[in-house]
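Before the break, one more example. Copy the sequence into your notebook; we will annotate it together after we see the structure.
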Amino acid sequence: MVKVESSNINAVGYDTSFGGLIVEFKNGNKYMYEKVPMEVYENLLKAESKGRFINENVKGKFEYKKITEDVKC
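Here is what the structure looks like once it is written out:
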């Protein structure tokens, strides 16, 4: 997981084995978005607004699940 500067997101991570994008929000919730291309993750890291990027390029475009266990990338 990589800490990011964001008002809403604590950290993001990427699992290359299956294209899982992990997003940890400041409220403590963690979500794994499935089959996300590496390019999307790389662009997220470069984005000025991480929250806006997630809203525009990830939410509603990839299946996801809430995760409760500690995930390391």
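The mean pLDDT is 93. The CA atoms of residues 6 and 49 lie 7 Å apart. Try to locate both features in your own notes.
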